[in-house]
Amino acid sequence: MTRGVPRGCPPVAGPTGNLALIETRWLPEGDTTTAQEALAGHPATVTATAVGRGNLDTGAPERGIRLWDAASPAIRAFDTIDAFPFDPAWVVEATFTPVAGEHTVPFEHIRDNGLTRDKVVPGDISFSRDGVDYTLSAFDDEGTLLLVFGDPTNGAEDDGGTYASGRFLFVTRHGDRAVLDFNRAFVPPCGFSDQFNCPLPPRSNRFAFPVTAGEKRVVFREGFAH
Question: Which of 58, 78, 98 is at the close of a domain?
Fold first, then answer.
């Protein structure tokens, strides 16, 4: 199965792939540590990159450093990404309705202790299933619509269970038409490393029906837990 992520993304087990992230460090105001300086004391397998975000309270820019290890414990323990078989019934036609102005929706994030960050949502995505109307909020991710969704499979312990915090899906849009190909739903970065701070599904993006399509969860060899 081909992952539903944009071309050019590092392989999950690559030197800067999702499994390689071992630390995200947010620097206090005035700290001028560079990515190169952060490598001190680490083996040659470790790479450092800069990262930024807005402060939750003030919106002021914050600097951080990420450390990636090409020989991380997660890479060594990685087995596979479990997925459902392809099913054309999960290619869903929807309607896209643009929203005037800069419309934002608050998204909780997995490491923000219940606080929210506003994401720009350029329009509503609407469809019906089993007699229920859904209006979804997909945010602008560098020019692509990213849907963060949840469903009853999240966290289930059986073979049909998926990643507990929800899954991601890039939405294909053509004018007022949107296509949700749930076969391309994928495990978010935080399913590979707890050093990522992933958005969680807002209430409008939580389905009452189980989405039995796309990636389920990351499988590690016995005895490993991230």
Answer: 78
Last residue of a domain, one of 78, 102, 118: 78
Per-residue pLDDT tens digits for 111-120: 999 999 999 9
Q: Are residues 73 and 87 part of one domain?
A: no
pLDDT tens-digit profile of 65-93? 999 999 999 999 999 999 999 999 999 99
Reported residue count of the chain is 226
d(CA 149, CA 34): 36
Amino acid at 183: N
Asked if residue 42 lies in contact with residue 67, where contact means CB atoms within 8 angstroms, the answer is yes
Query: Distance between CA atoms of 194 and 159, rounded to whole angstroms?
Result: 23
| DSSP code of residue 38 | H
| Closest to 49 measured CA to CA, from 73, 74, 25 | 25
73 shares its domain with 104: no
